[in-house]
Design a protein that fits this description.
single chain; 164 residues; alpha/beta; four-stranded parallel β-sheet; two-stranded antiparallel ribbon; 27% helix; globular
Length: 164
């Protein structure tokens, strides 16, 4: 019988008080039981909820403004954790909380990627983030007439430098 490795992906790990890194306690509990387990944490670089009043923040929760959060992410054991991109704001400020990457053209996608990269650098997380992206709400820009996808194309063109 083949042995399978288990990877659990977790979205929206952020400095937001309703999200935070509390989930890591459960991750470490699972690591104690299954030492080979792997987690992929998808972290927005400047999480900003603006629509739902009960979770809205007055400003983006930009990672470089939360050194304790960044330290905790940096110190995660690489054999069990990898960090992926989950958008910059996660939503469209003032419009939605979840679909930031859904309707971008190539130039807009490049701008979002540049913002993510800058924030990761400013937060001292270069080399921690892997060149993996999970669009918020699993919403990816629609393919254009030539079949290409603007976000995918922009991300692929930045793959060599996106994670540091």
């Amino acid at each position: 019988m083949e042995n399978f490795l288990v990877n659990i992906s977790i979205d929206d790990v952020t400095p937001h008080p309703f999200s935070s890194t509390r989930v890591l306690e459960q991750c470490f509990s699972l690591i104690n039981k299954f030492p080979d387990i792997k987690f992929t944490l998808f972290i927005p670089t400047s999480y900003w909820r603006t629509v739902k009043p009960s979770i809205a923040t007055s400003h983006p929760l930009q990672l470089d403004r939360f050194p304790d959060f960044c330290k905790q992410i940096r110190e995660l054991p690489a054999e069990n954790f990898e960090i992926g991109f989950h958008g910059h704001y996660h939503g469209i400020p003032g419009k939605s909380d979840n679909d930031e990457l859904q309707d971008l053209n190539y130039a807009q996608a490049k701008e979002v990627i540049a913002s993510m990269k800058k924030t990761v650098k400013d937060a001292g997380l270069e080399g921690v983030y892997r060149p993996i992206i999970r669009p918020p709400d699993h919403a990816l820009s629609h393919a254009k007439d030539n079949g290409s996808n603007p976000l995918y194309s922009a991300f692929r063109s930045s793959i060599n430098s996106i994670a540091g």
